[in-house]
Automatic annotation (TrEMBL), chains A, B, C, D:
<dbReference type="InterPro" id="IPR005560">
    <property type="entry name" value="Csp_YhjQ"/>
</dbReference>
<protein>
    <submittedName>
        <fullName>Four-helix bundle copper-binding protein</fullName>
    </submittedName>
</protein>
<dbReference type="InterPro" id="IPR044543">
    <property type="entry name" value="YHJQ-like"/>
</dbReference>
<dbReference type="Pfam" id="PF03860">
    <property type="entry name" value="Csp"/>
</dbReference>
Amino acid sequence: MAHEKYENLIQKLHQCMEACSHCFDACLQEEDVQMMTSCIRLDRECADICGYLEQAIARNSPFTAELAGVCATICEACGEECQKHDHEHCRECAKACFECAEACRQIA
Amino acid sequence: MAHEKYENLIQKLHQCMEACSHCFDACLQEEDVQMMTSCIRLDRECADICGYLEQAIARNSPFTAELAGVCATICEACGEECQKHDHEHCRECAKACFECAEACRQIA
Amino acid sequence: MAHEKYENLIQKLHQCMEACSHCFDACLQEEDVQMMTSCIRLDRECADICGYLEQAIARNSPFTAELAGVCATICEACGEECQKHDHEHCRECAKACFECAEACRQIA
Amino acid sequence: MAHEKYENLIQKLHQCMEACSHCFDACLQEEDVQMMTSCIRLDRECADICGYLEQAIARNSPFTAELAGVCATICEACGEECQKHDHEHCRECAKACFECAEACRQIA
């Protein structure tokens, strides 16, 4: 079944969605929020597409490969922004983004 | 952190989203698809709201309780429909729906 | 048909989704972004639920009333936050939120 | 502003989301539902991505072009399936899908 074949990717997407969502929330509470605006924006883009792709894979969407290609691009952009910052939530988010991007590229 | 406090609920939502998405896909491939139309419709409603609430909790949404109340209602409706059918995907889906509904009710 | 009966609500939801999404984008570009963090967060919550409800109504979801109740609550919270600010995007967003909340309450 | 530059595309996406959502609902009520399973599946894929892209454009997402490319592919697939059927909801859906695909291609 599609959702079992892609179990590793679904897990990476889920971890990335959670890490980006937490980073979004934490960035909005940082004192230096002015420095975090790109991060806030990209966290949201990335959480949204990861959540979307998770569900698309689980329902055996015929468009998994195309969506995974876009998702990889967004994860990489978010990871690159997050790794510019020293906040722990950003570092964890960057790690989750790069791992998810790699898993997406394998099926894109 | 919000997303840790709710880790059990996020897990139940994720399992329910996956079970409903798989049931949606499998119902569309059943020979007796005419019998499965309510199931198909409710699987989609339930997968959508579970995916939505997962992400809302992960970003520390101020509206988690209200959304969890609606999600519980939808999970219960989907579980009740699914348990009318003998397909394994329906039985697994019903189980995931009822567990998720219970977890939602605890925070609603 | 459901989506015609609710055409006014769908229009209000769509306008509110657009206004909140634009306000989210514009707030992230304001110099006083520190002042706008609640607005950014609520803009996102509100755009997401309005987009969700639009689509739920269009597919004749059995849960339109329950979802509209939550949507009204979120629209009101977003409108109250936005009306604290003088930026034009906030004032337009507040207006769209209150109109949408009112339309939601009529079917909730 | 991004959402004004793309006003035509947002309108096409919105019309396509509504047409696909209505077609999804109507297909599930057809007597020959067995014939409509591909249509049901693709209606959902298409409504979801159109709703997603609408909101991404409205918030000035940096990934509009990539998402529009995938959206065009999904709209075309849904339009091709829908035009195989004589139901009025399918014919209207096919028309909305092809118009939306064309608008997406222009910015992809």
